[in-house]
């Protein structure tokens, strides 16, 4: 399993914060989701390790290792329910790859090309000076900046 929250100063936190099952249940209830056994189990796997970025496949693999009886479809559905409820942020990378971020606060991301690696960038580190006005009848919900990185051969 890849822990996609690197230990680089100023970019995310790798501290394991812990999240007991009753905390997951309360978190789900607060956002209007019924705390089913599968949601609580997947929520515990997601949030027990602090802020991080996971794909559905990574969470499914963690669930299998933890002997949580869920299908990949259930993992996808749960991640989308958590995202709609505001517990996660969805990051679509290259159209085919999607990560879910357990830190739902405003911030941006580095993505390492060719790797399943996403690194947080604090919102204050990115200056978006001017945005175009949205079309009539719309408002800007948020700005997501994705900065792509590649390893330097050397």
UniProtKB/TrEMBL annotation:
Alphabetically ordered keywords of this record: Cytoplasm, DNA-binding, Iron, Metal-binding, Repressor, Transcription, Transcription regulation, Zinc
InterPro entries, sorted: FUR, WH-like_DNA-bd_sf, WH_DNA-bd_sf
Subcellular location(s) per record: Cytoplasm
Highest taxon of source: Bacteria
Subunit structure: Homodimer.
Entry's family note: Belongs to the Fur family.
Annotated protein name in UniProt: Ferric uptake regulation protein
Origin organism lineage: Bacteria, Pseudomonadati, Pseudomonadota, Alphaproteobacteria, Hyphomicrobiales
